[in-house]
Design brief:
alpha/beta; Double Stranded RNA Binding Domain; 2 domains
């Protein structure tokens, strides 16, 4: 779901999905070293090995040194991963959050994309309702909830309208269909929970009812992120997942502060246009239109 220039990343630049695999391989090596040292300790303590204590003791110390170096290397890698700057997933991405890596774009974004996907084979989209995830300790008022509901309803309508220019929107998973899920998350806390889901009806909303809010300013002003999951609608295989942040610095939203609903709308529209552009690049389209920055 989702995006901006980080929406699926550069078509010509594959995401570092192998990092997760390398982490798994390191864990396996770590376990093998533990087993090796365990065996050496057992042998060292065995009565039948008493006649070779000096040599075996030296071998045990060597194994311990290797184990210590491996532990330091692993912990350093974990620390560098934790220190990576960028938006933090809300919980919407679930287990897929561990696959994300920095996009290398101008703005803060994290991305995973399966390098084996043949994007041109997908000509249909099953667009799931848009969700809002927020800080569970800050409960929106009834008026704020109404505005947030209007936001996700309007954005769903906008996203569907943009995607329908290049794809057939379907309600059932058939061959060649992508299932796209999106979520708007806000709040500074690391823990977020789902608050609202867009209402999808067979009848399109009237244009004059979209982007109409009761309050003059949005519930959030910064620390806003867009999260997405793209799967094969039939096989449920993960094709891409990611998160883009808005509200500070150079982002896909083109703004530093969401001080008005108009700024939110402009940011989301740019995001939708950028998503369409990246999908066009990924499938090798001949006339991909890059949105103006």
């Amino acid at each position: 779901m989702v995006p901006s220039p980080a929406y699926f990343g550069h078509a010509e630049q594959q995401a570092d999905g192998g990092a997760a695999a390398r982490s798994t391989q390191f864990m396996r090596l770590w376990m093998r070293l533990l087993v090796l040292v365990g065996r050496e300790i057992g042998a060292y303590q065995h009565e039948g090995k008493r006649n070779n204590l000096p040599e075996r003791g030296q071998h045990l110390r060597t194994c311990g040194t290797i184990l210590g170096i491996a532990l330091i290397t692993w912990l350093s890698g974990c620390a560098s991963t934790q220190e990576t700057t960028g938006p933090q997933p809300s919980g919407f991405l679930g287990e897929y959050a561990y696959l994300l890596r920095p996009t290398g774009e101008d703005h803060a974004g994290l991305l995973y994309r399966d390098p084996e996907v043949h994007w041109a084979a997908y000509r249909r989209i099953l667009l799931e309702p848009v969700m809002i995830w927020g800080d569970p300790t800050t409960v929106p008022s009834s008026g704020q909830r109404e505005d947030l509901q209007q936001l996700v309803d309007s954005f769903y309508h906008l996203l569907a309208s943009k995607l329908s220019k290049d794809y057939a929107l379907v309600d059932a998973p058939v061959s060649g269909t992508m299932r796209i899920q999106t979520a708007i998350s806000y709040g500074k806390g690391a823990r977020k929970e789902p608050l609202l889901t867009s209402k999808v009806s067979s009848q399109a909303q009237e244009a004059n009812s979209l982007w109409t809010f009761a309050s003059s300013k949005p519930v959030f002003t910064d620390e806003v992120a867009m999260e997405f999951i793209v799967k094969d609608a039939r096989t449920d295989n993960l094709l891409a997942a990611g998160i883009d942040r808005g509200g500070s610095g150079t982002t896909l939203f083109k703004t530093e502060k969401f001080n008005s609903w108009n700024a939110v709308r402009n940011g989301l529209e740019f995001w939708a246009d950028a998503s369409l552009y990246r999908l066009c690049l990924l499938r090798g389209g001949p006339h991909c239109i890059k949105p103006a920055q």
